[in-house]
Queue: 4 jobs
Job 1
Amino acid sequence: MTGRHDFWHAFLSLGLILASFQLYAAPKAELWPFWQASNESNHATIDHQPWQTILDRYLLVQGQHHLFDYQNVSASDKHALKQYIRALASLDPRDYRQAEQYAYWVNLYNALTVDEILDHYPIRSITKLGGIFTFGPWDEDQVIVAGKTLTLNDIEHRILRPIWQDPRTHYAVNCASLGCPNLQLNAFTSANQEQLLDQAAKAFIRSPKGVLIQGNRAQLSTIYQWFSDDFGGEKALFEHISQYAPEYRGFTGKIRYDYDWSLNQP
């Protein structure tokens, strides 16, 4: 009797986890109007050097992956990361130009993700975080900015995606997983973000975890399935891809999707 109870409990838990995954898998871009304001006459810049220092020390290039050396982050650098996040949270990004805001939100998202992993390390996957029946920490409260409590999903799906409507945002935010577009070696700034976005898009599309085509079969990152509308819909997907890999233009073969949730560590 106990064995049967344990089986059904495990079955129910798996079902709830899979349901949570489906909810995560395709969040809609739903604008939070509060964050639309900007001050285009303010040419001040936000200092992201503390984040750059962390990236310089712990982000490693290994084949198609940029791996974060969570295991060896010093106590002082963990503290410095939290100080950087607090510094960003103390600002109101609406006081800055939109270009400055974009870099602010991308860096904040990525710094919060690394901080979340460090707070729970060692773990095998970010999907192990969050509540017992949730798939990852994306709906957990992370930071308060301008009096508003924000989750990672708020930053990505209620601010970045709907305000900028740039599919390259999917190559900029990093979910600490091997299947994700790489955490960039450089912190985003208003000056370098166009270059970084194109660089990140090209690197991902030209890596096997992004696009792998053999004959008339393609294996694509599940990002292209989850957020199909951001890339122009399924029929226009290869138009986006071919901007960075012209040889894939006009592909009409069979497509399967794959994603590796393993932690992006050495």
Job 2
Amino acid sequence: MHPYGYSKERFVWSRYLQLAFFALALPPTNIQYASLVIGGSFLIEGGSLVVAIHAVRKGAAAEGMTVRDYV
């Protein structure tokens, strides 16, 4: 009935899994590939942040509130 746990518990377990992957990761054999992956991650996450900020500003404007009050 609750495949991912109750409420926000699923986020806690996913965080534990991420930490386990990080702790068990092997050192990179080619630093250029590792740098490329990290750089790509920053670009993708930055794009996601821009979209999120735009959505929050749009939502705040629709409610007639400041961004701070809306958040």
Job 3
Amino acid sequence: MISNIILVVAVIVFCVSAFQLFYIISGYYEGRKEYDEVKDLAITEEESEDGENQFAVDFDTLMGINPDTVGWIRFDPEPAQINYPLVQTADNSTYLNKTFSASDNTVGAIFVNTYNNPDFNDRNTIIYGHRMNDSSMFHDLAKYEEQSFWEANPYFYIYTPDGREITYHIYAAGQVTETSDTYLTDFADDAAYQAFLDYTKEASAYDTGVEVTTQDTVVTLSTCTRASDEHRMVVVGVKESEKQIN
């Protein structure tokens, strides 16, 4: 009798675990599939006559799928996996468990802090994304803990609905706590903003040597870490250039 009970319990535990694993894997698959389909619909990449790669975003298509669209983020050459639409809504919780097309899924979406302006002209704009175990979303930000990876991949790019391509030069990367000054978005004056910039450099895992002044604007990319629920991996880039591409 005891052996049979143990066997039944073991079978139940196995079935529950198998279902949970299937649910997780299925969620990853559906998430990847959706974002691949979004890229196919909205992104074109062509080589120009001078050999440069031309990256273009069809924001009309994106807006048709989700009117919360405020941009697109891309890394080139690596981590190339980070290549996603950006959304923003009235809170910072909606897109934790909803994809770009508003499907319920733990992969969520890459979203801009609700307290920022959607034009990326604030002194510090924060962008959030999950660190998924299948290396999707903002998982690969963790690679910037190694200075050698930053040296090979010091830039990321944001594209906006009004036709801008903004180039950001990463000047700081490392782990912080979720309550750190990295997440400040309002600054009383230049001195307060300078203190923020100094803090982000001090919190970096290494010195990039990239200059940042109070005349600059920055974007902070944030995701979870394996360290603890209170820690975050952040990559902070300063706007280096901006051009109109369409």
Job 4
Amino acid sequence: MDHASGGPQEPQQPDNAQGTPRCYRHPDRETGISCTRCERPICPDCMVSASVGFQCPDCARGTGPGDSGRPTPAATRPRTVAGGSLASDPRLVTKILLGLNIALFIVIHVVPDQTRLLNQLVLLGQWPPKSALVGTGIEPTSGVATGEWYRLVTSMFLHQEIWHIGFNLLSLWWLGGPLEAALGRARFLTLYLLAGLGGGALTYLVASPEEASLGASGAIFGLLAATAVLMRRLNYDMRPVVALVALNLVFTFVWSGIAWQAHIGGLVVGAGVAYAMVHAPRARRSLIQWGTSGAVLLVILVAVAIRTVVLA
């Protein structure tokens, strides 16, 4: 969801049967939140954290109704719900992630030896499996267990089928923009990468080491979980997002060929990190947010290290 531009406007009058207010900057969006200064209704994309409640972007900049228009002091500059800085383009990181996925998709389809490149980038525990090499004196030559930890990252941006990348990137666009606007760029990118790594780590920990996996699904499930956490934080109706999570989980376990470990890992990590992002008390916000992110990364690294020792 993009921010609309322009100066202060008159409050929009409710025009639905229940009289639910609509955001004064996005008249098509219903909302139950109002600016604490001018009392105009605002949607999540327009909410700026204040000492009490939320303000609209105009009031946060000092250009709202009744403001003098003087520059806002640095200590009270507009912040997102999670405490991040407001950006002129709230979808910039989302667009960059989309571009990386598309670029790698194009590369693997134009290189002469596609299979070889895929084998070097997919998430693979160990190949050939050591159990098949007992007594031969030969050691596995590729996989995370042989030191190729980079596969946990490269596999997050790798897709082979057009339907696979299409579904994941549509989901990234729909979920990423609102989350990036609500969290801020740094926090959103941290959430995305940790969810993807969490999905990869659980896959590596549980799945057969010779089974290869790829795709952004772990990160996407993390964004889905984060959306649910954010909606709960804003007291929005949870039924649509709960139904979406349930439907995706059904597909995860019913549709053959899906690495369910990546989906579950991303979902759990995304929910945990997002909860810390949006519920951290203002006085200790940065400590809790980045401390939680660091702790999650440490757990991921320990899980990968334990699995590597087991496979060695």
